[in-house]
Amino acid sequence: MMADRRRMPLRLIALCAVSIAASARASEPPAAKDHPILPPQEALATFSLPPGFRIEVVAAEPTLFNPMTMALDEQGHVYVSLAHTYRYGKEGSPVGNPSNPIVRLEPNADGSGFHAVEVASGFADPIMGLAVRGGELWATNLNQVFAAPLGDDGKAGERRTVVRDAETPWNPFGMYRITERPDGLFYLCVGDHPTKLSGSADPVAVRGSTGAVFRFRADGSDIEILAQGMRAPFSFDIDPYGRIWILSNGEGNPNRLIHAIPGADYHFQTRSVDWEWLAGRHPWAPPVYENPPGAHTTVLVYDSSAFPAEYWGNLLVANWGVHGFPSANHVILRHVVDERGNRLETTPFLTTTDPRFRPTQIARAPDGNLFVLDWYGMDDENDLTGRLYKISYTGDANTGTARSADAASDPVPPAAREGDLETALAGLANRNHWVRDASRRVLRNAGAANADSVGRVAAEGRSLEAAEALWVLRAGEWSESVKQIERAFTHADWRVRRLAVQLRSELPDAGGAAARLLDDPDPDVRMEASLNAANETDRLSAVIAALRAGAARDARLRYRGALAIARGGSAVHFEQLLADTNQDVRTCGLIALDEAFHEGLRADAASEALAKRIEEPGAVKLDRLLAVADQWPRTAWEGPVATAMRGELSASELVQCVAILRKLKPASATAAWDGELDRFWTRAAAGEVAVTTAADKQGVLSILALDRVQPNTLAVLDPILRDSDVEIRDEAHRTFAAMSGETGPRADLCRRLIRDTTASLECRLDAIVSLASLESDFDETLWTELLDSTTREVSLVALRSLRNHGRIDAAAKRIASARERLSARGPEFQGALDVRERAADLQPGSQQFLAQLYAREKDRAAVERKERLRTKLLEGHAQGNAGLGRLVFRAQVCSRCHRSGGPAEFAGPPLDGIAATQPVEYLVDSILYPSKTIKTGFMLELVVTTDGRVLVGGAVREGDALVVTSPTGTADRVAMDQIEQRRQLNRSLMPESLESTMSEAELFDLVAYLASLRTPRGAPGPSPR
User: Fold this and answer.
1) Cα separation of 797 and 926, whole Å?
2) CA angle (851 as vertex; 3, 19 as ends), nearest 5
3) Which among 79, 433, 701, 849 could disulfide-bond with 304, CB atoms 3.0 to 4.6 Å apart, if both were Cys?
């Protein structure tokens, strides 16, 4: 075990506790008021649904509490898992002997409701996924999938493990949902960790430490990864035409709705990418949709009969809501998608005014209406509440909207019985999912004798019944299935043809079977056929032809084609894409290069093609090529990039060239390299290279952060420190602090900026904060001028900043000499002076400081003062100044843990748009009581090593090691095989009582700043005036 020498003074982690990453696309948080537990029937009044829908209670506490997941069997019985130990283990359970049982709901004899019959119990960890098929119960339990027969009494028999994970993740980030799909295979989603699944054959592992969706046979064989690179892929669904939709919840990264590309890596923790990339907004990133803040628990493709016809094919997505209480986004959203999977519109389907509504799952009832499982609680704590609702469509007399013509009126629609093949064939066309499920089951059980009849439906039936027939043939895997599936290659609906090619490719001897569709007029069909060509040579040629024929216009097909080239292409294939006259095809070539380097399968071929293009870009913009080279540095770039630097390049291109060569030649390299860099700064300082766009400035800052202080670098940095964009200016000051070399010249630059009356007040105040952290020779004259300034903001920020000055004695002396004058300027000044006196004996960054803070936590008088302070902040939060609060945020260096507009250096998530999803109570409590609501991944953990060391801090997996960062900033890197014990402590990474290091006015300002963060990154920041 080796200890990293990264240290962070404790004052640098002050206020690093606002633990929620958010975006602005969210509903308003509830108003500041109490939200008591509502009886189930009263809770119904809090819901809003579209006209014609109603909601009713099916079951509630005490029958259900902590309901996590549900499943229905073929008879319509509802099975529910009760998660007694979710998140907080046995200690957080609401019952004395937690067993995490699975129950089945049975009707009461008097018809008054339901009671729960225990099916299975005795689980140390919650059951997160359930499926019931063919008289067997299937479930996920942390790191295993097990199956058990169900007896006539509903009890589960002896369990057998079908699939096991070699890793044991912490609760609850192991296995999530499981379901059997129409192809007869089981599908499973697993949270982010180094998953390695094994069943009856060789194990299958994800890339790095990431979440994934798998499928496998009922005996645990043929495990395959369908998609990976997600943080928490909590739910998925598949539509009748084979499209897979996945929800991936983020934490410091986007919530994503993914129309899955088979075999794709969505890059969470498998490579270094930023929020914009993960959100699918980079042109080379796999396409996804970003979901609103919250924990999304179900994506359901509505493909049944009870709802109006316009709901068919819509995605219904349940959102547990944002963590904390009260919070926003307790909702079920309706996403309208077209037949290509493009999201056209998103509207609320169900909303509520009760922030205790926490939907854990939604599922189709047999009649096509909707079951909604509700955890019902303040957050993910365990209590004794839980509900099951049913949402039904009854028709809307006001709009004239009627039920679907195919909707059955019976509670459970009539379905085919075993042996009734005629009814089963007809049932494939029924809009009711329950009828179609039963029909597929009957036809599959009937065996190969009916393959011809099913094949005829696949070839000649209407679109839905043809697709359902294809699933029957795929699940049957009869020798006749191959021929019958191929009959659907001529179907009029492209969706059926595409599905036929996909399912045919999964059966034996598929090579070349779809050759007749290589010229199909539909781009989806043509791409599917190309990817399943007879051999690799034909496949790559066909893929490029499909891209040129129009597939490259679609982001998803473009990415699929790029993956094929990245995994099998030669330099010639990469060149063909990069040299194409169509921009979309060239973009596909850049994606192919990027993925080839990421996966490493065709990196040499990609390297040859990229090096050639950097020297002769042709139609591809040079900055695009350099971006790939910068992401994947290789010695092959050195010559071409050095040659490019001698040309007439833009600022962004020069920045990219410098960044690439800097990675290839460290700062200690040849004098020639230093000369190149010096020439760049000379040209930029002289204005020969315009640094005007935000991208130019961010690029220049990224290089400056690695460089030393010299006149030209400071000359380039000076105008960026004066930028009107707050995010650019914040980054400039972070860069300013990170540069190597003497602090004197940087302090002088701050002094010049502070004294420049033509500069904006905001820029001058930023410079004051930076000067206090940089200055080694205390400038008594300047600080006296600042403290005595007639501009109130200047004087106040100077006083607050001096408290954190490195020259403690000199700063204290200067404050003391001005105390009387400052005190007379008002309570804000007096408060800052009082904090200085209270904190004089504290040693920031020391264990003693930390111990004193924890001691205050136990001091009853301090606790009571904190309670009074909370009341003051909640009642008077509007009096704070958000612009000054931003400077408090900077002065306390909160941005080392949290950042609005980019990733932070240490433990916390970004704060973009946090006020759009959280009320002021949450913001205040996150400062005063950081352990009250702790976001997943930001708890303290206790780690015991095999050599007896005990480490406490935030723990992050990095490859084969765990990095444990203590509250004082010390980071220890421990090999995973040296960890004997690891458990969570249910405490935030941030110590309590840090509010004692600030005045009330500073806290008011800080809360005002956090409450101003309602918009996405890139928006103007608040003004301190």
Assistant:
1) 24
2) 70
3) 433
Q: How buried is residue 731: exposed, middle or buried, by Cβ count under 10 Å (0-12/13-18/19+)?
A: buried
Burial of 790 (0-12, 13-18, 19+ CB in 10 A): exposed
Q: How many CA atoms lie within 13 A of 362 on its CB side?
A: 28
Q: Name the strands in the sheet holding 387-393, side by side, starting at the edge strand that comes first in the sequence.
A: 53-60, 387-393, 370-374, 359-364
State how far the Cα of 63 lies from the Cα of 384, in Å rounded to an integer: 10
Per the document, the length of the chain is: 1025
Instruction: Work out whether the CA dihedral 614, 618, 622, 628 comes out positive or negative.
Output: negative
Q: What DSSP element (H or E) covers 654?
A: helix 651-664
How far is Cα 506 from Cα 803, in angstroms, rounded to an integer?
Answer: 68
In 772-816, DSSP assigns E strands to none
pLDDT of residue 403: 38
- The tokens describing 251, both together, are 């934490």
Burial level of 701, CB count in 10 A (0-12/13-18/19+)? buried
pLDDT digits (tens, 9 = 90+) for 137-169: 999 999 999 999 999 888 999 999 999 999 988
- Burial of 523: CB neighbours in 10 Å, binned 0-12, 13-18, 19+: buried
Residue 316: its H or E element:
strand 315-319
> Tokens 């963590």 — which residue?
323
Location of structure tokens 């020259």: 807
- At 115, give phi and psi (nearest 5°): -125, 160
Judge contact between 1005 and 885, C-beta under 8 A. Answer: yes
3, β-bridge pairs: 972
Tens-digit pLDDT profile for residues 281-314: 999 999 999 999 999 999 999 999 999 999 999 9
Nearest to 556 by CA among 317, 348, 337: 337
Q: What pTM value is reported for the model?
A: 0.84
Alpha-carbon torsion, ordered 320, 71, 235, 407, to 10 deg: -90
Name the DSSP class of 366: T
Question: Under a CB-based contact definition with an 8 Å cutoff, are residues 63 and 116 in contact?
Answer: yes
Q: What is the pLDDT at residue 407?
A: 35
Segment (H or E) for 104: strand 102-107
CB of 188 closer than 8 Å to CB of 162: no
Q: What value does the mean pLDDT take over residues 980-1006?
A: 78
d(C-alpha 501, C-alpha 201), whole Å? 27
